[in-house]
TrEMBL record:
Residues 1-123 form the NADPH-dependent FMN reductase-like domain. InterPro entries: Flavoprotein-like_sf (IPR029039), FMN_Rdtase-like_dom (IPR005025), ISF_SsuE-like (IPR051796). The keyword Disulfide bond does not apply. This is Flavodoxin family protein. It comes from Faecalibacterium intestinale. Keywords: Flavoprotein, FMN.
Amino acid sequence: MKIVIINGSARKGNTLAAINAFIKGASEKNKIEIIEPDKLNIAPCKGCGVCQCSKGCVDKDDTNPTIDKIAAADMILFATPVYWWGMSAQLKLIIDKCYCRGLQLKNKKVGTIVVGGSPVGSIQYELIDKQFDCMAKYLSWDMLFKKSYYATARDELEKNKDSMNELEWIGKNL
Protein backbone atom coordinates (compact mmCIF):
# COMPACT_ATOMS: atom_id res chain seq x y z
CA MET A 1 0.00 0.00 0.00
CA LYS A 2 1.20 3.50 -0.76
CA ILE A 3 0.94 5.76 2.30
CA VAL A 4 1.35 9.52 2.22
CA ILE A 5 1.97 11.18 5.57
CA ILE A 6 1.29 14.89 5.83
CA ASN A 7 3.38 16.24 8.70
CA GLY A 8 1.59 19.34 9.97
CA SER A 9 4.44 20.28 12.30
CA ALA A 10 7.43 22.42 11.40
CA ARG A 11 9.23 21.32 14.55
CA LYS A 12 11.20 18.19 15.30
CA GLY A 13 9.22 17.20 18.37
CA ASN A 14 6.25 15.12 19.43
CA THR A 15 4.38 15.00 16.13
CA LEU A 16 7.50 13.80 14.33
CA ALA A 17 8.11 11.22 17.07
CA ALA A 18 4.58 9.90 16.51
CA ILE A 19 5.11 9.78 12.75
CA ASN A 20 8.41 7.94 13.16
CA ALA A 21 6.83 5.33 15.44
CA PHE A 22 4.06 4.76 12.88
CA ILE A 23 6.63 4.46 10.07
CA LYS A 24 8.64 1.97 12.10
CA GLY A 25 5.65 -0.34 12.07
CA ALA A 26 4.33 0.41 8.58
CA SER A 27 7.53 0.57 6.51
CA GLU A 28 8.06 -3.17 6.12
CA LYS A 29 4.93 -3.75 4.03
CA ASN A 30 4.18 -0.30 2.64
CA LYS A 31 5.69 2.43 0.51
CA ILE A 32 5.74 5.64 2.55
CA GLU A 33 6.23 9.26 1.54
CA ILE A 34 6.21 12.21 3.93
CA ILE A 35 4.95 15.61 2.83
CA GLU A 36 6.33 18.51 4.86
CA PRO A 37 4.24 21.59 4.07
CA ASP A 38 6.62 23.97 5.85
CA LYS A 39 9.28 23.11 3.26
CA LEU A 40 7.03 23.69 0.26
CA ASN A 41 6.12 26.80 -1.67
CA ILE A 42 2.32 26.67 -1.58
CA ALA A 43 0.10 29.73 -1.73
CA PRO A 44 -3.16 29.67 0.24
CA CYS A 45 -6.30 28.69 -1.65
CA LYS A 46 -7.96 31.74 -3.13
CA GLY A 47 -11.32 30.03 -3.62
CA CYS A 48 -11.32 31.05 -7.26
CA GLY A 49 -12.90 27.79 -8.41
CA VAL A 50 -10.87 27.71 -11.63
CA CYS A 51 -9.43 24.36 -10.53
CA GLN A 52 -12.85 22.77 -10.91
CA CYS A 53 -12.69 23.54 -14.63
CA SER A 54 -9.10 22.48 -15.24
CA LYS A 55 -6.61 19.85 -14.19
CA GLY A 56 -5.76 21.31 -10.82
CA CYS A 57 -4.75 24.47 -9.07
CA VAL A 58 -3.84 27.48 -11.18
CA ASP A 59 -1.08 28.54 -8.76
CA LYS A 60 2.37 27.95 -10.21
CA ASP A 61 3.85 26.57 -7.00
CA ASP A 62 4.18 23.18 -5.30
CA THR A 63 0.42 22.63 -5.05
CA ASN A 64 -0.20 20.33 -8.01
CA PRO A 65 2.80 18.01 -7.47
CA THR A 66 1.84 17.74 -3.79
CA ILE A 67 -1.80 16.97 -4.52
CA ASP A 68 -0.68 14.44 -7.17
CA LYS A 69 1.13 12.51 -4.42
CA ILE A 70 -1.88 12.61 -2.12
CA ALA A 71 -4.30 11.55 -4.88
CA ALA A 72 -2.02 8.63 -5.84
CA ALA A 73 -1.88 7.30 -2.27
CA ASP A 74 -3.94 4.40 -0.99
CA MET A 75 -3.81 5.84 2.52
CA ILE A 76 -3.32 9.34 3.92
CA LEU A 77 -2.05 9.96 7.43
CA PHE A 78 -2.74 13.46 8.70
CA ALA A 79 -0.45 14.33 11.63
CA THR A 80 -0.68 17.63 13.46
CA PRO A 81 0.12 19.41 16.67
CA VAL A 82 -2.76 21.36 18.19
CA TYR A 83 -2.59 25.08 17.38
CA TRP A 84 -5.27 27.19 19.05
CA TRP A 85 -7.77 24.33 19.44
CA GLY A 86 -7.32 23.20 15.84
CA MET A 87 -4.97 21.59 13.37
CA SER A 88 -1.83 23.48 12.40
CA ALA A 89 -1.91 26.06 9.63
CA GLN A 90 0.62 23.96 7.70
CA LEU A 91 -1.74 20.98 7.59
CA LYS A 92 -4.81 23.12 6.91
CA LEU A 93 -3.03 24.73 3.96
CA ILE A 94 -2.57 21.33 2.31
CA ILE A 95 -6.14 20.27 3.08
CA ASP A 96 -7.50 23.51 1.61
CA LYS A 97 -5.45 23.06 -1.55
CA CYS A 98 -6.84 19.51 -1.94
CA TYR A 99 -10.05 21.22 -3.06
CA CYS A 100 -8.60 21.41 -6.55
CA ARG A 101 -8.77 17.62 -6.81
CA GLY A 102 -11.17 16.65 -4.04
CA LEU A 103 -13.04 13.98 -5.95
CA GLN A 104 -9.76 12.12 -6.48
CA LEU A 105 -9.48 11.81 -2.70
CA LYS A 106 -12.73 9.85 -2.36
CA ASN A 107 -12.68 6.40 -0.75
CA LYS A 108 -9.16 6.74 0.69
CA LYS A 109 -8.00 4.99 3.80
CA VAL A 110 -7.21 7.67 6.37
CA GLY A 111 -5.69 8.01 9.82
CA THR A 112 -5.05 10.96 12.09
CA ILE A 113 -2.49 11.65 14.77
CA VAL A 114 -3.02 14.73 16.92
CA VAL A 115 -0.60 15.84 19.63
CA GLY A 116 -1.49 18.61 22.04
CA GLY A 117 -0.42 20.24 25.26
CA SER A 118 -3.69 19.56 27.08
CA PRO A 119 -4.99 16.25 28.42
CA VAL A 120 -6.59 14.07 25.74
CA GLY A 121 -10.12 14.63 27.09
CA SER A 122 -9.82 18.33 26.24
CA ILE A 123 -12.16 19.94 23.70
CA GLN A 124 -9.31 20.67 21.28
CA TYR A 125 -9.05 17.01 20.25
CA GLU A 126 -12.81 16.74 19.82
CA LEU A 127 -12.87 19.81 17.55
CA ILE A 128 -10.12 18.41 15.32
CA ASP A 129 -11.75 14.95 15.24
CA LYS A 130 -15.08 16.47 14.22
CA GLN A 131 -13.47 18.36 11.36
CA PHE A 132 -11.89 15.16 10.07
CA ASP A 133 -15.20 13.31 10.58
CA CYS A 134 -16.90 15.85 8.30
CA MET A 135 -14.23 15.43 5.62
CA ALA A 136 -14.41 11.64 5.96
CA LYS A 137 -18.17 11.64 5.49
CA TYR A 138 -18.02 14.00 2.51
CA LEU A 139 -15.24 12.05 0.77
CA SER A 140 -16.36 8.55 1.84
CA TRP A 141 -13.07 7.94 3.63
CA ASP A 142 -12.39 4.72 5.48
CA MET A 143 -11.21 6.21 8.79
CA LEU A 144 -8.80 3.55 10.03
CA PHE A 145 -7.79 5.33 13.23
CA LYS A 146 -7.84 8.64 15.06
CA LYS A 147 -5.22 8.90 17.79
CA SER A 148 -4.68 11.79 20.15
CA TYR A 149 -1.76 12.23 22.51
CA TYR A 150 -0.91 14.63 25.31
CA ALA A 151 2.67 15.86 25.39
CA THR A 152 4.10 19.20 26.44
CA ALA A 153 7.89 18.89 26.48
CA ARG A 154 9.40 18.52 23.00
CA ASP A 155 10.56 14.95 23.64
CA GLU A 156 7.77 13.83 25.97
CA LEU A 157 5.85 11.59 23.57
CA GLU A 158 9.00 9.81 22.46
CA LYS A 159 9.63 8.84 26.10
CA ASN A 160 6.11 7.39 26.41
CA LYS A 161 6.82 3.79 25.41
CA ASP A 162 3.14 2.77 25.49
CA SER A 163 2.25 5.48 22.96
CA MET A 164 5.23 4.69 20.75
CA ASN A 165 4.40 0.97 20.82
CA GLU A 166 0.75 1.71 20.02
CA LEU A 167 1.67 3.79 16.96
CA GLU A 168 4.16 1.19 15.77
CA TRP A 169 1.50 -1.51 16.20
CA ILE A 170 -1.02 0.54 14.20
CA GLY A 171 1.49 0.90 11.36
CA LYS A 172 2.39 -2.77 11.42
CA ASN A 173 -1.23 -3.91 11.32
CA LEU A 174 -2.50 -1.90 8.36
